[in-house]
Amino acid sequence: MLKSNILIVEDEEHIRKFVRINLEGEGFIVWEADSGEKGLEIARKEDIDVVLLDIMLPGIDGFEVCKILREEIPNIGIIMLTAKSQDIDKIMGLEYGTDDYMVKPFNPKELVLRVKSLLRRMEGNNPKEMDEIIDGPFKINKYSRKFLKNEKDIELTPTEFSIMKLFIENAGKAFSRDEILNLIWGEDFIGDSKIVDVNIRRLRSKIEDDPSEPKYIETVWGVGYRWRNNI
Ligand code: CA
């Protein structure tokens, strides 16, 4: 994953420092602004993913900054930094469209978790990513997680969908069972790679014209499986 750019807009220097140390420790690139005006300037110039936005700022306040950001850069993530006394309903309301908020004083570990979870949510609807891939009679839509063959819906489980996505994005590449296991189930999965074969068998019965003679999901003898390049 690319390194994400996080901008903190906050007039209190010690909070900026402490947020910077914690986010940099997690590998994020951190930008700082001590006013709303400077924050907007950075957000317009740099490829910022998430803004941590204080409300009480000198000059224009965090609410105003939030409104401007939502208008100019709709897909930017915004987490408001608030005091206890501030109205959470207002912050999370439609007018500002904040993604999340943290009440000061906050735990830095909690902030890191919120930033990561926001980034994960954003990944799913990143318009920069191509949502749909067409491959022969197949169409896979990563946004709606739909899979079609000859324009007909094929119901896939989330695991089957992830395997199809992996195959179609890497057409022609031979994957070993262990590679598929690591990429789909994760490296800490404890179990047998037979689970890969079980899923492939089920996938073949769903997507092949004749599952006993698969022509899309090919077996690579002694290795694993390969999606034939159908384009
Ligand atoms: Ca402040």
Produce the secondary structure layout.
Layout: E1 5-9, H1 13-24, E2 29-33, H2 36-45, E3 50-54, H3 62-72, E4 77-82, H4 88-92, E5 100-103, H5 108-124, E6 132-135, E7 138-141, E8 146-149, E9 152-153, H6 158-169, E10 174-176, H7 177-185, H8 194-207, E11 217-220, E12 224-227
Parallel strand pairs: 1-2, 1-3, 3-4, 4-5
Antiparallel strand pairs: 6-7, 7-8, 8-9, 10-12, 11-12
Helix pairs in contact: 1-5, 2-3, 6-7
The protein binds calcium ion.
Q: What does this 3D model show about the protein?
A:
- The chain has 231 residues and is of the alpha/beta class.
- The protein folds into two domains: 5-122, 3-Layer(aba) Sandwich (Rossmann fold), CATH 3.40.50; 132-227, Arc Repressor Mutant, subunit A (Orthogonal Bundle), CATH 1.10.10.
- Helices cover 39% and strands 22% of the residues.
- It is built from eight helices and twelve strands.
- The protein has helices at 13-24, 36-45, 62-72, 88-92, 108-124, 158-169, 177-185, 194-207, and strands at residues 5-9, 29-33, 50-54, 77-82, 100-103, 132-135, 138-141, 146-149, 152-153, 174-176, 217-220, 224-227.
- The protein has a five-stranded parallel beta sheet, sandwiched between helices.
- Strand 8 and strand 9 form a beta hairpin.
Short description:
The chain has helices at residues 13-24, 36-45, 62-72, 88-92, 108-124, 158-169, 177-185, 194-207; strands at 5-9, 29-33, 50-54, 77-82, 100-103, 132-135, 138-141, 146-149, 152-153, 174-176, 217-220, 224-227. It has 231 residues and is of the alpha/beta class. The protein folds into two domains: 5-122, Response regulator (Rossmann fold, 3-Layer(aba) Sandwich); 132-227, Winged helix-like DNA-binding domain superfamily/Winged helix DNA-binding domain (Arc Repressor Mutant, subunit A, Orthogonal Bundle), CATH 1.10.10.10.
